[in-house]
C-alpha cells in the first residue's frame, strides 16, 4: 500500500542510492519499507574509528512528522547509548524536524552534529552544536553511567572499552 | 481571401512562482507535483509561504503544525511559522 510515509521513504531510499552520504549506508528490509537496516562507520580521529556499527530504524505511518525509532544492534559503549542500544539524541526526540530524512539522521549520528533542516542547502539556519554523539559525548544526563564516568575520569580506560566494541562490531 | 475560423483549441501551462528546482522540504516532492495526499497540482494542492521565506505544500505544513511536537515552528528555521497572506499583506499564524 502506498501511503505518505511509504512514498517519502522511497524518496529517502532513492537519495541514499543517488547521493550516498559518506560513512553510512542503509536500506529497507525486503518487503517492508517501514523498517531499515543501517551501518555507521566510526568517524576518524575518535575511539570509534573504523567500527562498523549496525542499527535498525523503525518508521511509523506518521513519518516524517514523527521521528523514526533508531537503535544500535551492535554493542555500543557510549555515554549517550543505553544498554538496549537506544540513543539519547535530541534530534530523534524534541528537536525532530520533518525535513530530516534517513541520510540526514544517520549522518548526524555518525558525524555527531545536527543536520541542516534544509538538506539541500546549508544556508538556511545556523544550528548551535548541542551534541556531538560519537565524538563529543554529552555526559550531562548519561544513558550509560559507566561510560560517562570513564569518559570524564579515565579516558584511557574509556578508549580501551570503546575499542573492544569496535573489534566486536567487525564480527557481527 | 476570406478565412473563417471554425474551431480552435487553447492550451495553457502554469507553474508556481518559485525557483523551479525547489522541493517541499517535508515530502521532498517538487512543487509542481502534489503533496502525498493529493492527485492534482494547482488549486487543490496549494503552496503556503511562511513569513520566514520557506515554502511547503499547504497540506504538508498543516500536518506538521498539527503535531504538538512542532511547537508551531517552521521545520526549516524553527521560527514561529506564520504564513504570508498575498492578498492583503497581513499575516496569520496557524493554530
Give an overview in words.
- The complex is a heterodimer of chains A (172) and B (95).
- Chain A is 30% helix and 16% strand.
- Chain A has 172 residues and is of the alpha+beta class.
- A 4-stranded antiparallel sheet of chain A has the order 1-2-3-4.
- The longest helix of chain A is centred in the C-terminal third of the chain and has 17 residues, at 155-171.
- Chain A is globular and about 50 Å long.
- Mean pLDDT of chain A is 85; it is low at 120-132.
- The radius of gyration of chain B is 18 Å and the shape is elongated.
- Chain B has 95 residues and is mainly β.
- Helix content of chain B is 9%, strand content 13%.
- The model of chain B has no long low-confidence stretch (mean pLDDT 86).
- Chain B has a domain at 20-84: Zinc/RING finger domain, C3HC4 (zinc finger) (Herpes Virus-1).
- The interface between A and B is medium-sized, with 22 and 20 residues.
Question: How do the strands of the widest beta sheet of chain B line up side by side?
Answer: 1-2
Summing up helix and strand content along with how strands pair, one would put the structural category of chain A as alpha+beta
Number of helices of chain A: 4
What is the share of helical residues of chain B? under 10%
The H-and-E topology of chain A, N to C, reads as HEEEEHHH
Shape of chain A: globular
Helical stretch count of chain B?
1
Distance between the termini of chain A: 33 Å
**Beta-strand level of the residues of chain A, as a percent range?**
15-25%
End-to-end separation of chain B: 66 Å
User: What value does the average pLDDT of chain B take?
Assistant: 86
Largest sheet, spatial ordering of strands of chain A: 1-2-3-4
Record field, number of beta strands of chain B: 4
**Rg of chain B, Cα atoms, Å:** 18 Å
Give the full name of the CATH homologous superfamily of the domain at 20-84 in chain B.
Answer: Zinc/RING finger domain, C3HC4 (zinc finger)
Order of helices and strands of chain B: EEHEE
Multimeric status of the protein:
heterodimer
Strand content of chain B: 5-15%
Sheet with the most strands, sense and barrel status of chain A: 4 strands, antiparallel
Uncertain segments of chain B: none
**Runs of chain A with pLDDT <50, length 5+?**
120-132
